[in-house]
């Protein structure tokens, strides 16, 4: 089974469970490292569950990851969609999570981000600032951020090699 197909199957197996438990499937990858295969599933709290009653941001915990792992492991054993041996890892995407999908960009508007570019723009290949907007386009999407010098950047998504949330203490 192709890698992409396995990640789709995982998404389908988890879909109803994640919604009912208030979780969000952030990303899934099926990759080979050395001789071993890894099915990595990154989960988070659903957006509506990510803010506590006190107004503070809440994060997914290890017991949540264990719950998802037990459920997914059972479903994978039942359907057996993966031919080779693999290790299942379920975890949080982390505080400095990568922004991969358009949904990720939209979810974190207003947050501090670090963006690396394939090629330099205005003499830099790295732009840090606050994510202001994400506009999906037919040919390319545009990511808008305001850097810490108040300069607005409109970056084509195709020019971004890596984008992640910035961890600021």
Walk me through the structure.
Strand 4 (112-121) and strand 5 form a beta hairpin. The chain is of the alpha+beta class. Helix 1 crosses helix 2 (62-79). The protein is globular. The model has no long low-confidence stretch (mean pLDDT 93). It has a 5-stranded antiparallel beta sheet. Strands 1-2-3 form a 3-stranded mixed beta sheet. The chain starts with a helix and ends with a strand. Helices cover 25% and strands 38% of the residues.
What can be said about this structure in brief?
With 169 residues, this protein is an alpha+beta fold. It is built from 3 helices and 8 strands; from the N terminus they run H-E-E-H-E-H-E-E-E-E-E.
Task: Quickly list its features.
169 residues, 3 helices, alpha+beta, 3-stranded mixed sheet, 8 strands
Topology:
Blueprint: H1 3-21, E1 23-33, E2 36-45, H2 62-79, E3 87-91, H3 102-107, E4 112-121, E5 124-135, E6 142-147, E7 152-156, E8 160-165
Parallel strand pairs: 2-3
Antiparallel strand pairs: 1-2, 4-5, 4-8, 5-6, 6-7
- Helix count, DSSP H or I runs of 4 or more residues: 3
Fraction of helical residues? 25-40%
Please summarize the sheet with the most strands.
5 strands, antiparallel
Major sheet: order of its strands?
7-6-5-4-8
State the separation between the terminal residues, measured CA to CA: 43 Å
How many β-strands, per DSSP?
A: 8
Give the rounded overall mean pLDDT. 93
The SSE order reads HEEHEHEEEEE
- The low-confidence parts are none
Strand content: 35-45%
- Overall 3D geometry? globular
Structural class: alpha+beta
User: Oligomeric status of the shown chains?
Assistant: single chain
Radius of gyration, in angstroms, nearest whole number: 18 Å
